[in-house]
C-alpha cells in the first residue's frame, strides 16, 4: 500500500507543476501588468520611474520563465505574496475565507447523502411503480434547473414571501447557511439519486444476486449486505468529484448568497484582476482535485481486492 501511495504522489507532482505553469502563463499574457492593475485598484497615479522601480522589485522586468521560477520558489517557501487590492498577505486572506467554504461543503454533502442514497435505493427496488416515477421526475427537474435560478427562486420563496431567512448574509450562521445548502443539496441529490438508482438496478441483475435469491436469502439481506457494498465504490467516486468542486468554492452560489467563502473571493479577484489571489485559488483547486482523486484511488485500492491483485502483477 505504501509503495502504491508513493508512486501516485510522484505522478501528481508534474500535474501540479503543469497547472501552475499554465495559469501563470495566462496571467503573464493578460493585458496590462501587475503594476498597472495595482495602480487602477488603489486609485493612485504612479510615475513611470516609480513603475519601473516597482517592476524591478517584484521581478516583473525579468523573462517569463525566471518570473515563474521566483514565484514557484516563494510558493514552496509559504509566501504567496500580497493582494493587489487590499495589500494583505494572500495566504492569510485565503485562510480567512476557507472555513466558510468547508462549512458549506460539509453541510451540503451530509444532506445529499441523507437524501440521495435512500431515495435511489427505494426507487430501484420499486422499479416502474408510481413512487419510482415520482422520484425520477423530481430528480430530472432538480437536475435541469440552473443553480443561479434555483438560488433566486429559494430567496424569493423563503426570504421575500415567507420571511424565514435573510436575503443578504451579513455573517456566517445557521440562518445564512440554510439557503445555500438547500440550493447545492437539491442539485446534487437530483443527480445522485438517479446514479444510485442506476447502479443498484445494475447490481441486482448480477449473477451473485440471482444465486443468493435461489438459496432463499432475504431480499433485504442481499441488498444491504452485498449490493450496497459494491455500489458504494461507484458512489464514492461520484461524491469525491463533488467534494472537490465544493471545497473549491461554488462561485455562483456563494456570490448570490454573499457567502464569504473562497468561491466568492475568486470571483471578486477576477473582477478586480487581483492576480495573486487568482493564482492562490488555482493552486488550491489543483491540490483539492488531485488529492481527492488520490484519496479515491487509495480507497478503491483498499476496498476492491481486484485492484490490489492487479497492482501486484
Automatic annotation (TrEMBL):
An example GO CC term for this entry is:
plasma membrane
Q: Which stretches are transmembrane? A: 12-30, 102-125, 137-160, 172-190, 230-258, 278-303
Q: What is the name attached to this protein's record?
A: ABC transporter permease
Membrane topology designation: Multi-pass membrane protein
Instruction: Give the Gene3D superfamilies listed for this entry.
Output: MetI-like
Q: Which residue range or ranges hold the ABC transmembrane type-1 domain?
A: 98-300
| Domain of life (superkingdom) | Bacteria
Q: Name one Pfam family in it.
A: BPD_transp_1
Q: Which InterPro entries match?
A: BPD_transp_1_N (IPR045621), MetI-like (IPR000515), MetI-like_sf (IPR035906)
The UniProt keyword set, sorted, is: Cell membrane, Membrane, Transmembrane, Transmembrane helix, Transport
Protein family membership: Belongs to the binding-protein-dependent transport system permease family.
Any GO BP annotation: transmembrane transport
Subcellular location as annotated: Cell membrane
